[in-house]
């Protein structure tokens, strides 16, 4: 994410997809999905009723059915992008379109309008007015204002499942921490040390653990201390996280860590390191945890196989902020279950997308928004699904690896 966080290594380094957790980064979650409804400042039920009556979207004549709209679509058939081509489709082609609770997705669109792509900016007034509309009205509006385009690889390939399509997941870790080093909390997470030079390689992860010179330069840059060094690695791989920090006086505060910098070292996948040694056959997070539990003496080897270290900045986490994810590459807060990371050479950031994916972990057919990027998110039919925060989200993200289909939803000319 870029923005402030996938954050950061999203546009900068971003998150890493957890099924590939330790296998490849997403440099840039059941996920218990957080649904927030955008509320206006109308104060009473009467005012709200008036608001709803006055602002509800009235579908245009002929808006239902096949590709109804107010004018020709601005894209030509087979529109070519760097890594994808967009083929005009019919709304009836979108699996589950009439069943999705679009009201659940509308908050993500409201956030999208905080930093809209220019082509979508003219729609934002209508989007905001529809924030309290029924899903049926929202779907009528989508049909009238947008045209679906099926996303296919620019180089060809089998779009129906045998080709290069992959959906993975990422999440925001939620961890307990101590402001001071103490027994049980001895794994530090750092802010950028003063001696760090952007763009130049610095000490590796192993150097930071062993070399007195590196440790001297890190002194005073500790933000907090975690109970498990593997949690610190996961936090860095995901690019951001929430910490419940116990202060020296015993009080606790919730904070969000977002990406600030790296040590300039190349990312190496600890999971691939295990696979290359033949130590595991399952490089998912559950498989890696099982191996670590059986081989505690190999912990440092596992950690040091990845020389790259992420440094963070600490941010206050208000109750309102806690209901959403960290900022993605688009610069807006991610919405659990409704934000995805994409390759911007295939789908521009800020684009609404219809996503369909079925597999052993989750079945999805829903409106999502391309709001993040990642170094491992490359190609036309590749997406990383933001599952949310905490253990449930992490469990889904750590296992999610299944095919997908994508349709971009592009504005019609008015």
Question: Topology of this structure?
Answer:
Elements: E1 14-15, E2 26-27, H1 45-55, E3 79-80, E4 84-88, H2 102-112, H3 124-129, H4 135-145, E5 146-153, E6 166-172, E7 174-178, E8 187-190, H5 205-210, H6 212-218, E9 222-226, H7 229-238, E10 240-246, E11 252-262, H8 270-277, H9 285-294, H10 299-304, E12 310-316, E13 339-341, E14 352-358, E15 363-372, E16 382-389, H11 391-399, E17 401-402, E18 405-411
Parallel strand pairs: 6-16, 7-10, 13-15
Antiparallel strand pairs: 1-2, 3-4, 4-5, 5-18, 6-17, 7-9, 8-9, 10-11, 11-12, 13-16, 14-15, 14-18
Notes on the structure:
By secondary structure, the protein is of the alpha+beta class. The chain has one domain (1-29, 68-269, 306-414): RlpA-like domain (Barwin-like endoglucanases, Beta Barrel). The protein is 23% helix and 25% strand. It is built from eleven helices and 18 strands. The strands form three sheets. The protein has a ten-stranded mixed sheet with strand order 3-4-5-18-14-15-13-16-6-17. A six-stranded mixed sheet has the order 8-9-7-10-11-12, covered by helices on one side. Strand 10 (240-246) and strand 11 (252-262) form a beta hairpin. The model is unreliable at 1-73 and 158-162 (pLDDT under 50).
């Amino acid at each position: 994410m870029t923005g402030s966080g996938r954050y950061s290594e999203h546009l900068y380094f971003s998150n890493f997809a957890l099924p590939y957790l330790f296998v490849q980064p997403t440099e840039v979650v059941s996920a218990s999905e957080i649904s927030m409804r955008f509320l206006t400042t109308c104060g009473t039920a009467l005012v709200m009723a008036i608001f709803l009556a006055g602002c509800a979207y009235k579908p245009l004549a002929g808006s239902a059915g096949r590709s109804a709209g107010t004018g020709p679509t601005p894209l030509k058939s087979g529109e070519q992008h760097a890594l994808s081509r967009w083929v005009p489709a019919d709304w009836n082609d979108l699996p589950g379109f009439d069943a999705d609770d679009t009201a659940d997705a509308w908050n993500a669109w409201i956030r999208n309008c905080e930093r809209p792509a220019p082509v979508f900016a003219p729609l934002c007034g209508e989007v905001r007015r529809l924030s309290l509309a029924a899903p049926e009205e929202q779907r009528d509006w989508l049909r009238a204002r947008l045209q679906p385009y099926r996303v296919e690889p620019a180089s060809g390939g089998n779009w129906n499942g045998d080709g290069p399509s992959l959906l993975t997941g990422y999440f925001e870790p939620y961890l307990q921490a101590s402001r001071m080093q103490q027994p049980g909390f001895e794994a530090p997470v750092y802010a950028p040390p003063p001696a760090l030079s952007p763009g130049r390689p610095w000490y590796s992860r192993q150097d930071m653990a062993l070399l007195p010179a590196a440790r001297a330069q890190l002194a005073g840059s500790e933000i907090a201390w975690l109970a498990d060094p593997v949690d610190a690695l996961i936090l860095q791989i995901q690019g951001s996280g929430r910490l419940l920090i116990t202060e020296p006086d015993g009080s606790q505060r919730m904070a969000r860590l977002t990406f600030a910098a790296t040590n300039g070292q190349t990312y190496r996948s600890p999971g691939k390191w295990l696979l290359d040694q033949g130590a595991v056959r399952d490089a998912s997070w559950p498989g890696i945890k099982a191996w670590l539990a059986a081989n505690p003496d190999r912990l440092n080897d596992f950690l040091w196989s990845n020389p790259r270290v992420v440094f963070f900045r600490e941010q206050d986490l208000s109750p309102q902020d806690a209901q959403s994810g960290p900022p993605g590459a688009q610069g807006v807060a991610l919405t659990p279950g409704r934000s995805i990371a994409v390759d911007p050479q295939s789908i521009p950031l800020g684009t609404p997308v219809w996503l369909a994916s079925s597999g052993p972990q989750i079945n999805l057919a829903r409106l999502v928004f391309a709001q993040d990027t990642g170094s491992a998110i490359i190609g036309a039919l590749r997406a990383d699904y933001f599952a949310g925060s905490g253990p449930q989200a992490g469990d889904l993200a750590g296992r999610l690896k299944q095919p997908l289909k994508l349709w971009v939803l592009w504005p019609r000319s008015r």
